[in-house]
Amino acid sequence: MYSHLLFITKGDFSAFHRIKSDEVWHFYAGGTLLLHILHSDGQLHTLHLGNGVSTEHMYTAVVPAGAWFASEPAPNAAFSFVGCTVAPGFDFADFEMADATELCNQYPQHAPFILPRCR
User: What is the DSSP string of 60-117?
Assistant: First the structure.
């Protein structure tokens, strides 16, 4: 098992990437984190990790193996403090950072959304 913590401040983001295992995200503190998941069939979902009392917020979420994903604090959040857990483990050989051009070519309907969330 591999776990790490992320402290993402307003205006920053975790760029689109994917790994070969499921990844569980955990909300700890701060404002809502937007977790954007782009599935291989082209569906794009945004999950809200946070401690809000609405049905829109959740404390944990799973990104399925092989899905592209990115994250960022919600517009009204100064920061989001979250953790990620991968099991059975994580190897950087299983990590792929998105190439913005290639990802936009694969999912042109989402290009305006993808571009600002790639490095």
Answer: EEEEPTT-EEEEEE-TT-SEEEEEEEESS---GGGEEEPPHHHHHHH-GGGHHHHGGG
Average pLDDT of span 91-99:
91
Domain at 2-117, CATH class = mainly beta
pLDDT tens for 32-90 read 999 999 999 999 999 999 987 667 889 999 999 999 999 999 999 999 999 999 987 77
- What is the spatial distance between Cα 6 and Cα 52, in angstroms, rounded to a whole number? 19
Two structure tokens written together for 119: 């490095």
Where are the chain's structural domains? 2-117
39 CB contacts (<8 Å, ≥6 apart)?
45, 64, 67
Kindly report whether the global pTM for this prediction surpasses the value 0.70: yes
Q: What angle do CA 21, 11, 98 make, to 5 degrees?
A: 35
Distance between CA atoms of 98 and 102, rounded to whole angstroms?
8
